[in-house]
TrEMBL record:
It comes from Halocatena salina. PROSITE patterns: MR_MLE_1 (PS00908). The keyword Lyase applies. Its EC number is 4.2.1.6. The keyword Metal-binding applies. Residues 126-231 form the Mandelate racemase/muconate lactonizing enzyme C-terminal domain. Gene3D superfamilies: Enolase-like C-terminal domain (3.20.20.120), Enolase-like, N-terminal domain (3.30.390.10). InterPro entries: DgoD-like (IPR034593), Enolase-like_C_sf (IPR036849), Enolase-like_N (IPR029017), Enolase_C-like (IPR029065), Galactonate_deHydtase (IPR023592), Mandel_Rmase/mucon_lact_enz_CS (IPR018110), Mandelate_racemase_C (IPR013342), Mandelate_racemase_N_dom (IPR013341). One of its GO terms (molecular function) is metal ion binding. Keywords: Lyase, Magnesium, Metal-binding, Plasmid. One of its GO terms (biological process) is D-galactonate catabolic process. It is an enzyme of class 4 (lyase). This is Galactonate dehydratase.
Length: 383
């Protein structure tokens, strides 16, 4: 079997999908994307496939991963690793279809039958966020994540801190103590303010505080960790296992949130989860993207003991109205019940893409970029 062709599809609102084809008629799908850098990633995917993959055996997943990563003198980073991730998704999809088995079975077999998923809550005033959380709780979700601040200056007022605490308090009150609640600082908070916020959030029994500092200040995570009993998390903006090493050695995090679309795909996410397990660190993969990325991520989750929960932004509770799940031939592929997604049993990634719908959507111009925020003095704020 050889790889013979590939196609890339940009679809709304901000996704890039990859289809790999073989001479055996078996195709595989991947989701290579850096949100806001779609065209850059598209070029990187084309360079990698045309330079290294066409005409080769798709079943050599580990060899191809090493070749695509290691053959370039300059390697790593979010663009190249996200391009590699989408290719890796598609290679594993082909491999699973060839052997007529889910990817997780090829990685050692499933360790659980269903996976807890968490729902992301949009920002807003406390009452609105609380009402959204309450509705999602009634739909069955039992875990949530909330961005606690928007523009947040390096030194903020007591009132700004109070507003952040009010949001968290309102959501906790809405969902009660039987549900999990994680808080994302999103890299918007400086170390001087992080110390105050983590102290003020202690009473709300959070499952984690995510990205308390920007990735470039990861050397400060152990200090943040010493300030609180709340588990510290990070990882959605990391692009390989090598960026986690020092955090594990320093005992600076208790939870990591790697993204299967940014860390080099299924192959690398599996290695990161194994590394984390040796340090007793829990894994809750980041995944605010489409159903291909979600399918790739849960393949690792179902065969990894320390992957305890999975992010999703698919609207699993109502597949009939989900724009994301509409990309699948069967929007009910992922069965949602009591806050869990059931283990998919189909071969490869376990999904069938509605290719005609994808091709129709690909006629739409897709040019999403994240907003640029400013502080009141005109300086650029973290988004």
């Amino acid at each position: 079997m050889q790889i013979t062709n590939y196609e890339l599809f940009a679809v709304p609102p901000r996704w890039l999908l990859l289809k790999l084809e073989t001479d055996e008629g078996i195709g595989g799908w991947g989701e290579p994307i850096v949100q806001g850098r779609l065209e850059t990633v598209r070029t990187a995917v084309s360079e990698l496939i045309e330079g290294y993959l066409l005409g080769t055996d798709p079943l050599r997943t580990e060899y191809h991963w090493r070749k695509l990563y290691q053959s370039g003198y300059f390697r790593g980073g979010p663009i190249l690793m996200s391009a590699l991730a989408g290719i890796d998704h598609a290679l594993w999809d082909i491999k699973g279809r060839w052997y007529d088995a889910p990817v997780y079975e090829l990685l050692g077999g499933h360790v659980r039958d269903r996976m807890l998923v968490y729902q992301w809550l949009a920002s807003g005033v406390p009452d609105a966020i609380a009402e959204s959380a309450r509705k999602d709780y009634e739909r069955g979700y039992r875990a949530f994540k909330l961005n606690c601040v928007q523009e947040f200056r390096p030194i903020e007022t007591a009132a700004a801190v109070d507003r952040a605490v009010e949001r968290v308090a309102a959501v906790r009150d809405a969902i009660g103590n039987e549900a999990f609640l994680g808080i994302d600082f999103h890299g918007r908070v400086s170390k001087p303010m992080a110390s105050e916020l983590v102290r003020r959030f202690e009473p709300y029994d959070l499952m984690f505080i995510d990205q308390p500092l920007l990735p470039e200040h990861a050397d400060g995570f152990d200090t943040i960790n010493d300030w609180t009993t709340t588990p510290i998390a990070t990882g959605e903006r990391f692009s390989s296992r090598y960026e986690y090493k020092q955090l594990f050695v320093d005992d600076a995090v208790s939870v990591i949130q790697p993204d299967v679309t940014h860390v080099g795909g299924i192959s690398e996410l599996r290695k990161i989860a194994s590394m984390a397990e040796s340090f007793d660190v829990a894994v809750i993969p980041h995944c605010p993207l489409g159903p291909i990325a979600f399918a790739a991520s849960v393949q690792v989750g179902f065969c990894s003991q320390n992957v305890v929960m999975q992010e999703q932004d698919l609207g699993l509770h109502n597949p009939d109205s989900s724009q994301q799940l509409a990309l699948l031939e069967d929007p009910e592929t992922f069965t949602f019940d009591d806050g869990y997604v059931e283990r998919p049993t189909g071969p490869g990634l376990g999904i069938q893409i509605d290719e005609s719908h994808v091709r129709e959507l690909a006629q739409t111009e897709v040019n999403w970029h994240n907003p640029v925020w400013h502080h009141e003095d005109g300086s650029v704020a973290e988004w």
